[in-house]
Every structure is written in structure tokens, then in C-alpha cells.
Amino acid sequence: MLDCWVVSKHFSVSQDEENEMTQCHRPELLNYTHSVAMNEIDRMNRDLNSLKEVMIKHSVRCHMLEVDLATQFSPDLQAALRSTEKDCIRCREALQCDNDQQPSMLSSNGEEQVQVTDQ
Questions:
Q1: What is the pLDDT averaged over residues 30-50?
Q2: What pLDDT is stored for residue 25 in this prediction?
């Protein structure tokens, strides 16, 4: 809404009143054109879209952190992790035991042959 007042010449008003009514109380509105308004609206739209993208990213990150926090203290997950860790230890011990039980292989000339093991 513009704050400018225009008085027609058909009315009889004093010169002071006419000057006061024709002057715009907000000088920044004098140079305000349609293109300036559209540019300002486009800038606001870009700012709002960038804020929307940031909010979506933060919302997704917050949701992921909530899921991580909830699963971190899940009793079922903790039990599965402990079970997997115990299975891994047993498997490692079994492989180590098998490796220790194998006799070192010596060639006929007394040189050791290299055994290939995965570690």
C-alpha cells in the first residue's frame, strides 16, 4: 500500500495542505517500480528456498541422530552385538588353535616353507 496522497485541482485546498498531501511520507517508495518489486520478490523466494533446504537437511540429520540414539541403547541390538563378538572370539581362537596344531613343514633340504595365513 502506498502512503502517497494526490489531490485533484478540482478541490479548493490551501497551498500548505496541498504540498503536504502530494508529498510522499516514505521517499523510498518514489523509485519503487514493478521490476524492483519483482526482483525483491525473487530474492525473497530464493532466500526462502535456501532456508527450506537447510531446514530439510537439519530435519533429516536430527531424525537420523534420534534413530542412532534409540538403537544405541536397544537391548536386542546390544544382545546381538555381544553374541556376534563372542562368535568372533571363538572363531579366532579356533583358527589360532588349528594354526598351532599344524606341524611346520620342512623341505627335504631342511629349509622352512612359508605358510600362507589370513590375518
A1: 91
A2: 64
